[in-house]
Amino acid sequence: MKKLLLHTCCACCSTEVIERLKKDYDITLFFSNSNIYPFDEYEKRLNEAKRIAKIMELDLYEDAFQSIEWDMFVANAGLDSEDIEKNEETNYKKMKEGSKRCELCFKFNLTRAAKFAKDFNFDCFTTTLTISPHKNHEMINKIGKELSKEHKVEFLECDFKENDGFKKSTELSKKHNLYRQNYCGCKYSKRN
């Protein structure tokens, strides 16, 4: 059975994804979410991820919380500094969910997952992010495939919202009485 590192954004999204993958993969959860704001929200989501790991009898690794590095990466990756200040369309702080800011956020967190998967000899990695109806699975899978080549570890391309994935994750979240957040995670999505 292949060893899979599953980047998990939150416990709620993890539920149905774990159910789908557990028959074919030896799953380890990886909580790498330096975008989450404020820190008490990060801790809530981490504690729930630990709880679902225990319920599902899986190991979970917590990545270092690097909110400053995340913010700098998202602010500086591919955006011209003059444009950031002048133009709302290129100012990552004003971008809406699903924009270039989200693409950079996915890249930051998934790069950390790819490195961890490679460093600790996992056969492959993937993410729970594609279960959300608010996330672009094509964008996420494209980033995953690029990182797969760069770090020489297989990326499992998925769209977990298929076959009522999000609905099933909501039902499982209720069953396990999991905390369900009402925004993506970063301070900019909270504002919107």
Instruction: Round the Cα radius of gyration to an integer and report it.
Output: 16 Å
- The top-level CATH class is Alpha Beta
Number of separate structural domains: 1
Instruction: Kindly report the average pLDDT value.
Output: 90
The parts where pLDDT drops under 50 for at least 5 residues are none
What CATH architecture label applies? 3-Layer(aba) Sandwich
**Structural class per helix/strand content?**
alpha/beta
Strand content range: 5-15%
Work out the number of β strands. 5
- Order of helix and strand elements from N to C terminus: EHEHEHHHEHEHH
How would you explain this protein's 3D organization?
By secondary structure, the protein is an alpha/beta fold. The protein has one domain: HUPs (Rossmann fold). It has 8 helices and 5 strands, in the order βαβαβαααβαβαα. It has a 5-stranded parallel sheet, with helices on both faces. It is globular.
